[in-house]
Design goal:
38% of the residues lie in helices and 13% in strands. A 6-stranded parallel sheet has the order 1-2-3-4-5-6. It folds into 2 domains: 98 residues; 101 residues, no CATH class. The two termini are 24 Å apart. By secondary structure, the protein is of the alpha/beta class. The protein contains 8 helices and 6 strands.
């Protein structure tokens, strides 16, 4: 099982109801004490947790000047955490997917969370470019590009594939094969919004992998 962490400590600023309002910094961003209290609450189920994922929102220039500042702020936080859990990082900034980010993951034993969707580059392209830096746990998350459009097509009934992505799934399967050869732990999460039915997509991935 994986757990997506509370947004209270991985958003830099509070969300605004009105974009005309000034940004208000979140004082709990990367608060080690708050995070430790959260992990304390998970102790009874710690043996069932695969990866604790930090999902960072899209960070515009108002929130973060760039990748260098991001690394400067998150690295001390991750270095302060105990090694009880495996921690993963998911980005929503395509321009952050560069060597310094993967160096950050590698030197801190953090897991890469590959996100397919949400305006991020295709994960197999990112993987090919940076696969030599992946030596620990990896997470693959398959999300759709058009959440509202998929809900309209399915009427929120998720029992059939309405947007087949066979070619993409074959590329994902090759990723999975390559990662298995590297003997890293791997988690694959599939969302209904990817093709229309997560269980059927999972079956397709399993069949193509046989």
């Amino acid at each position: 099982m994986h757990h997506k962490n509370s947004k209270q400590y991985n958003i830099t600023h509070f969300y605004r109801k009105n974009n005309a309002e000034p940004l208000k910094e979140n004082p709990h961003f990367l608060d080690t004490g708050l995070f430790n209290s959260f992990t304390d609450s998970l102790k009874s189920m710690s043996d069932k947790i695969g990866v604790l994922m930090f999902q960072f929102e899209y960070l515009n220039k108002q929130k973060m000047s760039g990748l260098d500042e991001f690394i400067e702020r998150v690295e001390p936080f991750f270095q302060s955490l105990d090694s009880t859990h495996t921690y993963g990082v998911e980005l929503r900034n395509p321009n952050y997917l560069k060597k310094p980010f993967f160096d950050l993951l590698e030197r801190n034993n953090l897991s890469m969370v590959f996100l397919q969707g949400y305006f991020m580059p295709n994960i197999w392209q990112t993987f090919e470019e940076h696969k030599d830096h992946l030596s620990t746990t990896v997470v693959i998350r398959l999300h759709g590009g058009d959440r509202a459009g998929m809900e309209e097509k399915t009427n929120k009934v998720w029992n059939k594939i309405v947007e087949p992505k066979d070619e993409d799934i074959e590329k994902v399967r090759r990723m999975i094969y390559s990662l298995r050869r590297k003997e890293v732990d791997l988690y694959v999460n599939v969302n209904n919004h990817y093709e229309g039915s997560a269980p059927l997509t999972i079956e397709k991935i399993k069949r193509q992998g046989e």
